[in-house]
């Protein structure tokens, strides 16, 4: 017997795709028997998984509506376990597929949590939601079992690095920061320090820095790059410190006539810090050149270009710093150094380009020859 309103679709959504991840079940799933089979597979794969109970609840709701004379179909959709965007996109595609097949007049949405209910606006694009039924799973029937469940979650939070870095790491860093501030009688800055630390932690997770670092660790040059960049940072810091010492010890009475104290100090600071900063800038391309040369990779030529650019710019920048410190130096020295460096850099770039083009042409010819055979 059909209801006056037409067919009803009882729908359950597994937004994080535990069905596919744990039970290797493909979605969408349509039909009572197929939904029961999927729920059993998920329950066997993970007896503590709440999504299995959500599917059973959807089947139970469909049976109940059918016993009251409604024309009912039951279905299960799934999203994605890593990305909320990908999860919603997959759910939208599956919902369009199921609803175009079943053609319901309305949907009864069965949910086992608030996260799954976030997809309701997506489902409503295809058919009206008649009712939302939330299933509350009773995990334990006694206080002892409740403590056991709580202990299990605590063990997961403290023992799993994915969670312990936030459960223990962030509070630990806060306590350490407050202790250091108290040691130096800087408690007045505690609020700002806490906000900065929490902001860094949220950005670290929100922008996926942890995942990017995990991917980078698999690269053979990650450690090499890390130590090289650390050494470069130390060199830059050393240059800044050395420049500050030189500026503090300057005798401003010795500056050339007509040169302001600010200009004289700026020139002295730049000329002092420049060698440190220059070495810091050429260190990374120099190391990468050596690395790619050992591996006989043509990427070494690109690193040579970066190294040469940094090396050739040192002389004109130093002349410019000395000119700022003493404008009575000949400006032609600065211009000559700049033009000489640019000419040498252009010549080097031209030769590297010719080498790369020749290498690329050889590869094309070899590929064409192998295709012709």
From TrEMBL:
UniProt keyword terms in alphabetical order: Membrane, Transmembrane, Transmembrane helix
Domain of life assignment: Archaea
Transmembrane segments: 163-184, 190-209, 221-244, 264-294, 306-324, 330-353
Keyword Membrane applies: yes
Coiled-coil residue spans: none
Classification via PANTHER family: DUF373 FAMILY PROTEIN, HYPOTHETICAL MEMBRANE PROTEIN, CONSERVED, DUF373 FAMILY
Protein name: DUF373 family protein
Annotated organism of origin: Conexivisphaera calida
